[in-house]
Small ribosomal subunit protein mS26 (Acrocephalus arundinaceus), 215 residues
Amino acid sequence: AAMLPALRRCRLGPVPLPALAAALGPGPVPGLCPGWSPRAVPARGRKTRHDPPAKSKAGRVKLPPPVDPEELLVVQERYRQYRLVLSALRYRHGPGMGMGLAKPRCSGQPPAFLGVNVTPHPSDFSFLSGREERARKEEEEQKRRKLETAEKQARKMEAFLEEKEKEVLQLQEEAKNFITPENLEARIEECLDNPQNYNFAIDKDGRIVKRTVLS
């Protein structure tokens, strides 16, 4: 229903704005803004920042998408390797790499410095050996961390089993005083021979100050 007035205005065709205003009569033309033209395509209405949310989305809570921990670890490891390779290339070729600063000009003869990288530089071997040493140390550190984690898990499991064993022994000890069909008669006779009176009052220190007499 809101689009009908705009569609009616579009069907008028390329009519000049003064002629259209004269046809509609004196006074401000309803529904026309100063920059409106009959040739303009009507735009779909949009909500402002002050409009309330829709009823169907009033109680919606937007949650971030779930992240897979294993996939996150793989992505982090690959990004770490990428940064190591990129830092090595920047260290080897200088800060202008990738910015078009060292791009050779097009000419008939190739520049003289293009043959520099044909033969390996002694610094390449030192850099490669240093990188291998760092990779070896990182691998040893990862193995040490995995070993420490496995030992910690083993200690936790051992403590858990000891605690459960103590609970089982305690339950077995308490089970000796349970009332069973075999000792039911004896426990009833014991309770009748030794009556207990729990109708008493105590003070703040826990001492019995008053007790009723059993009838």
